[in-house]
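ARCHIVE CARD
CATEGORY: sequence design from structure
SOURCE FIELD: tokenized fold
FIELD CONTENT:
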């Protein structure tokens, strides 16, 4: 970790990594996280993105000590952070077109849960806990959390987590589909990186198109004929890529394909 950095970005061999070193979100932490995510979204060479928290926690949401101080000193500014930081962070994650793998080493709570659910694949340590937390401090949710929970779990289960503040463990999160995989506590970061590297070496254009299709289907904004037309357009585009031609030839030759992202 670079000295005094709360969030960092680096990119090596097509894998962009954003690491959040500080789980409680002060203004400085949010600004650094947003800057790192924007670099990931704007990269023209990243073929996958890996979002990691610290070893004991992914993200626990707003730093309440800082929040309490602002409530006392300048209450009119206490919630401007939603527009200034939380919404842009979620939108930066949404703007990443390549696959996003989230490694969760511990608690993912409040806005932290919203950030985690904005990824595409989530690898969790067995010790991790997940919760909404907002109503426990007299607030409704932000960070797109209600949006993600309803689409992941349905209205009834989302309502339970939001109103009752139920905290669930990693195995229950796996059962509900909130995480993709649960691994031993000492293996989560390595496994998340392994998955991200696999995606970074895959057919990037196909992954981008697949994300686009899934998002369109989940939004409910398009009817089936529109979705079918978009699928056809995307297949026409992918059908002339080197990755597609190479993968078909590899299949016929009975060997594993090698993807270049083109």
């Amino acid at each position: 970790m670079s000295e005094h950095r709360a969030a960092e970005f680096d990119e090596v061999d097509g894998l962009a990594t954003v690491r959040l070193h500080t789980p409680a979100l002060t203004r400085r932490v949010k600004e650094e996280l947003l800057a790192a995510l924007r670099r990931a979204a704007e990269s023209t060479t990243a073929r996958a993105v890996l979002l990691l928290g610290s070893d004991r926690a992914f993200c626990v949401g707003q730093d309440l000590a800082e929040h309490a101080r602002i409530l006392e000193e300048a209450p009119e500014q206490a919630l401007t952070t939603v527009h200034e930081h939380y919404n842009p962070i979620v939108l930066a994650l949404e703007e990443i077109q390549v696959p996003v793998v989230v490694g969760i080493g511990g608690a993912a709570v409040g806005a932290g849960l919203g950030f985690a659910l904005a990824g595409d694949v989530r690898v969790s340590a067995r010790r991790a806990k997940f919760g909404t937390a907002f109503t426990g401090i007299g607030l409704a949710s932000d960070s797109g959390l209600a949006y993600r929970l309803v689409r992941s779990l349905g209205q009834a289960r989302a309502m339970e987590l939001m109103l009752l503040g139920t905290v669930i463990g990693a195995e229950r999160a796996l059962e509900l589909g909130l995480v993709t995989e649960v691994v031993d506590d000492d293996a989560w970061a390595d496994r998340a990186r392994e998955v991200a590297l696999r995606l970074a070496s895959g057919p990037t254009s196909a992954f981008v198109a697949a994300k686009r299709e899934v998002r369109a289907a989940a939004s409910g904004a398009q009817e089936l004929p529109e979705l079918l037309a978009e699928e056809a357009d995307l297949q026409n585009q992918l059908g002339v890529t080197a990755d597609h031609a190479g993968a078909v030839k590899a299949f016929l030759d009975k060997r594993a394909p090698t993807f270049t992202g083109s």
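CARD ANNOTATION: The radius of gyration is 19 Å. The longest helix spans residues 27-42.
SHELF: design records, drawer C
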